[in-house]
Amino acid sequence: MVDNKNNRETFSSGLAVFFATLGSAVGLGNIWKFPYMVGENGGGAFVLTYFICVLLVGIPVAVSEFYIGRSTRKNAVGAFDVLKAKPFWKSIGYMGVLSALFIMFFYSSVAGWVFSYVFKAIKGDFLSLASLSMEEAAVNVSSQFDIAVGGSVSPFVWQITAVAIVSIIILAGVKKGIERITKTLLPLLFILIIICCIRALTLEGARQGLSFLFRPDFSKLSASAVLSALGLAFFKLSLGMGTMITYGSYFTEKDNLFATSARVALSDSIVSLLAGTAIFPVVFTFGMEPGAGPGLLFKTIPLVFSKIPFGNLLLIAFFILTSIAATTAMLSLVEVPVAFFIEEKGMSRNKAVILTSALILIIGLLTVHPKSVFGNVVIAGKGFFDLFDYLSSNIMLPIGGLLISIFVGYVTNKDHLSKELSNNGTLNNKGMIKFFINVLRYLTPALLVIVFLNSIGIINF
Ligand code: TRP
Question: Cα–Cα distance between 80 and 75 in angstroms, integer?
Fold first, then answer.
């Protein structure tokens, strides 16, 4: 379908919009990052804080990004020209291009781990778990993970594979590439995670796992955990850097921006909670550490499937579908610098894709891997992996979100905004728009600033 504003491609229907946006939101963030951060930050209280952040910050910023994108049909830099904003606001777009690259440095590495687990499961590396005792099985999966990510060749090969696959899909163009994949495979992933949950709930430690995930204990919540929950909300919903501006630019005139944001946030949250429900019972059954860090997913999921019929087949399917979720999320990340290079720097699509993947690999390969040349370099107490994660999720995305909420709340033309949010007056949602503008003006930026200052210790609660 071709949009009438400037012949730009759009998604073909409301449902396609929903799935494509969900394809960006659902990814390693739900299946890998959410559970391990919940584990590191003490469980239920972190989960609750996360949901408050989604509601009061995530959804308003998502609507704002959709507004900027759809009303201009541009990328995150060009959009601000169309809105006749001062050049300063373009820094949201520039910073977004940078954040997308920062995230890809470590995201592509984790995607490589997931790809390698597909291969490991097919080879039968986890078949022996069935005959081991619990303690032995737990030790076995942990050491398999350490070997898988610690090698000096294979993790690099898998990371390159991940980036190459993403580049090839991106080269095929927006609609064909993204729409087809997300529509068919996300529902399958959803079903498989539910199977994981059912199995996990039959384990001995199910109660303890669920209570860890759902029962808030605020004594375990630190200021830095609150910032992490906020950062995770941005990361999960792909906000604060223009991905959703770019996606919004492909929406049709008929999509309801509020409903789309709410539906995406809800579905995304359900997937995250299901992933937690699949993982924490295993943690408590096998006597593992909830705060095991980035390896948590890889050390638990093989155990979920270890003693059930067709377990290995399900395990293979799980990692295949997770690779696909990771891939669709990466598509949305890589699309940000690619659209920028094409539309602002006048590059061809091929050139833009090659340049972007080269940048990701050069820095991603050299810096992210623990065994890489810079594996032991520590900056501000963090290795490169954590540093890129921290800078992007906890600093750049929230700052991007703050600027976006200020721009849409205070700077942009209110009539233009209301017109866009009501689809040119065809939706009867005046009250909703008013409420939204108030939240965006007062609540969202205030929360962002308070959490930010609190976590870096300038103010103290
Ligand atoms: N939301 C994705 C996930 O959960 C990651 C992601 C894709 C992202 N695009 C983004 C994060 C843009 C921040 C910004 O895995």
Answer: 9
> CB of 27 closer than 6 A to ligand 1?
yes
Mutation choice for ligand 1 from 178, 333, 334, 392, CB with most ligand atoms inside 8 A: 333
Domain that holds residue 26: 2-455
Q: Does any domain span residue 353?
A: yes
What is the three-class DSSP state of 103? helix
Q: Which atom of ligand 1 is nearest to the CA of 393?
A: 13
Q: Helix, strand or coil for residue 379?
A: strand
Q: Please indicate whether residue 238, judged by its CB atom, sits closer than 6 Å to ligand 1.
A: yes
Buried b (16+ CB within 10 A) or exposed e, 345-362: eebeeeebbbebbeebbe
Q: Over pLDDT 90: what percentage of the chain?
A: 61
CB 70 near ligand 1, within 6 Å: no
The atom number, within ligand 1, closest to the CA of 237 reads 1
Q: Is the CB of 25 under 6 A from ligand 1?
A: yes
Distance from residue 239's CA to the centre of ligand 1 (Å): 7
Mean of the per-residue pLDDT values of the chain: 89
CATH number of the domain to which 119 belongs: 1.20.1740.10
Check residue 242 and report its DSSP letter.
Answer: S
Distance 95 CA to ligand 1 centre (A): 15
Q: What DSSP letter does each residue of 271-336 carry, written as one string?
A: HHHHHHHHHHHHHHHTT--TT-GGGHHHHHHHHHTTTSTTHHHHHHHHHHHHHHHHHHHHHHHHHH
Query: Which whole number is the average pLDDT over 41-50?
Result: 95
Q: Which residue has the higher pLDDT, 139 or 75?
A: 139
Total number of domains in the chain:
1
Would the pLDDT of 54 be above 50? yes
In a domain, 371, yes or no: yes
Pocket flag, ligand 1, residue 29 (CB < 6 Å):
yes
pLDDT of residue 3: 44
**460 falls within a domain:** no
Question: Which secondary-structure segment (H or E) carries 161?
Answer: helix 154-171
Instruction: Check if the beta carbon of residue 409 is closer than 8 Å to that of residue 437.
Output: yes
In whole angstroms, give the CA distance from residue 154 to residue 247. Answer: 34
Phi, psi dihedrals of residue 382, rounded to the nearest 5°: -130, 145
pLDDT digits (tens, 9 = 90+) for 316-362: 999 998 998 899 899 889 988 988 898 889 999 999 999 999 999 98
| Residue with CA closest to ligand 1 atom 10 | 238
* Token duo for residue 97: 């291009």
| pLDDT at position 335 | 85
Residue 461 lies in a domain: no
